[in-house]
Amino acid sequence: MRNGPKHRTELGRYLVADPAICHGKLIFKGTRVFVVDVLADVERGLSWDFITQRWGGGKISKAAIAEAVHLARTTFLDEEGRLHPLSRAA
Predict the structure, then answer these.
(1) Model confidence, pTM
(2) Which CATH number fits domain 9-76: 2.60.40.10, 1.10.10.10, 1.10.510.10, 3.90.180.10?
């Protein structure tokens, strides 16, 4: 069984995981829009203009999308594009 965050965790200016909101899944602040859904739209090649309107009628800015993409990229890659060592969970 996976456990979400025990307390509110803000990741940057636009992203938050809060156990009291959407079961602790990562969302854009002030919305109930999941970051994973927006990243899936980016992956599909949808325009950021379209994505900002699709989710929350413009409540998610391009800067918020950029922050989510940056977080996703830096989770796996260092500044020079090399893969970060992945921890091995037991």
Answers:
(1) 0.84
(2) 1.10.10.10
Number of helices followed by number of strands (H, E) in the chain: 3, 3
DSSP string, 23-38: GG--EETTS--BHHHH
pLDDT in tens, 64-85: 999 999 999 988 888 888 888 8
User: Which parts of the chain register pLDDT below 70?
Assistant: 1-4, 86-90
Specify the amino acid at residue 6.
Answer: K
Output DSSP code: residue 61. Answer: -
